[in-house]
Fold:
Amino acid sequence: MICGLEVIINKPAVEPEHFDFSGKTILNVTDSLAGLDVIALMLETHHANYIRARDGVEAVEICRQNQNVDLILMDIQMPIMDGFEATQEIRKFNPNVPIIGITYSGLKNGLEVSKEAGCNDIFFKPVEMKRLIKMIDN
Structure:
């Protein structure tokens, strides 16, 4: 457990040449600094351009200013503006960017609620890097 974020690291690790996100810009939105760092390391390992946002308000602003975001990893439970609200705001001006909601598996009807908010898919914590990489690749 890193700063309250449980991270599962698979062994053997996914080889970077299998998943190359060169030229792709991925926005990771979470209020967890440990979550930002772990996912940032994973994305950098796979050559993605990486942008951070620490809450939904910041994510919306980044998306307004940067129409080149290829994918958003959206933490659902955040202060100020949660992931559902941020997703709904982003959908108003960018209906096509893929958004993966990230939350704890205890969220009742998580997939259904996430899709209603505008997420394309949902990923449940703890973060299993190999599975997340495959989801991003899809």
